[in-house]
Amino acid sequence: MALVGYHASHEQFAPGELLSLVQAAETAGFGAGMCSDHLFPWSERQGHSGFAWSWLGAALQATSLSFGVVTAPGYRYHPTTIAQAAATLEQMFPGRFWMAVGSGELLNEHVTGERWPAKADRNARLRECVDVARALWRGETVTHRGRVVVDEAKLYSLPPAPPPVIGAALSPETARWMGDWVDGLVTVNQPPEKLRAVVDAFREGGGTDKPVFLQVHLSWARDEAAARRQAHEQWNMVALASHVLADLRLPSQFDAAAEFVRPDDLDASVRISADLGRHAEWLNGYLEAGFERVMLHNVGRNQREFIEAFGAGVLPELRAGAASR
To answer: What's the pTM value of the predicted model, to 2 decimals?
Structure first.
């Protein structure tokens, strides 16, 4: 049965609070967890950026959930660092950790002072980093000289099995490129025809029998106006094009770029409603489309209210829908 999980947004909440929230989510019936990996928040209004890899160890210990993280090796993180971190989590919590990899955003990666390359070069570096990590997880001694340099690296605390490497893709082009070398795909909700194009491209590129996950940005509150207001206040940057998101340096620049985004502009990217039944309908549609994990990110500050409401009024509907399929 497909899993419906809770997305922990490090950009919006302090690490200790997020830990308490994922515990509450498990109690409410969410079946999995996922988190972001940021050095900066998207907006100055969000105000946080805890270190995801420290937090993941605590979250895996504090719950029985599986967890994934979306990360970008090759800039802020050397691939040996990512490989060691992932191996340690998988060694301590076998079968409960996966990592999604993407080509990154300048927002988080510019701090090393390296030149920020074009998308094609970032993709090539990402593939090198994953190849290095997989060789290290096999116990090999790795020397590599390419876009990243590795000199006689070896891991001694190996996982019982390598953690799944899930490709993070927003566009059909990236999804197709990843299809034959990642273990699965994670993407985000967008209009149905665009979402289908991403999944179809992944399948065509070699991902025919591989799992596909979906992160759903949504905004729920007790009334419609509040749901729309919090989406615009906390997550208006999602209306920007993906190439813009990748190339801005600072939260203040995201705030400036999104200054003229209107609340109604978010409907293509955020599921906004005060109606729990409407949210259940949307999410059942994703499950029926074959997504194996649907990770819910309520973009507002009202996380506990959201967890309680969805635990009581949405997750049972999704389980019932799954049982009838």
So the answer is: 0.96
Catalytic residues: 38, 105
What's the first-to-final CA gap in the chain, in angstroms? 10
Dist CA 250 CA 199 (whole Å): 31
Among 106, 15, 100, which residue's Cα sits nearest to residue 66?
A: 100
Both tokens of residue 21?
């929230």
| 158-164 average pLDDT score | 97
As a whole number, the mean pLDDT across the chain is: 96
Phi, psi for residue 211 in degrees, rounded to 5: -70, 150
Collapsed DSSP state (helix, strand, coil) of residue 295: strand
Band (321; pLDDT cuts 50, 70, 90): confident
Residue 322, pLDDT > 90, answer: no
* Alpha helical stretches, state H, the chain: 15-28, 52-62, 79-92, 106-109, 119-137, 172-178, 192-202, 224-235, 242-247, 251-257, 276-288, 303-313, 315-324
What tokens does 72 get? 């970008």
Query: Within 13 Å, how many C-alpha atoms sit on residue 69's CB side?
Result: 24
- pLDDT attached to residue 325: 66
Rounded to the nearest angstrom, the gap between the alpha carbon of residue 80 and the centroid of all alpha carbons in its chain is: 21
Q: Where are the domains of the chain?
A: 3-324
Q: What is the CATH number of domain 3-324?
A: 3.20.20.30
Q: Are 42 and 76 in contact (CB under 8 A)?
A: no
Asked whether 6 and 30 are in contact (CB, 8 A), the reply is yes
Looking at residue 2, its pLDDT comes to 87
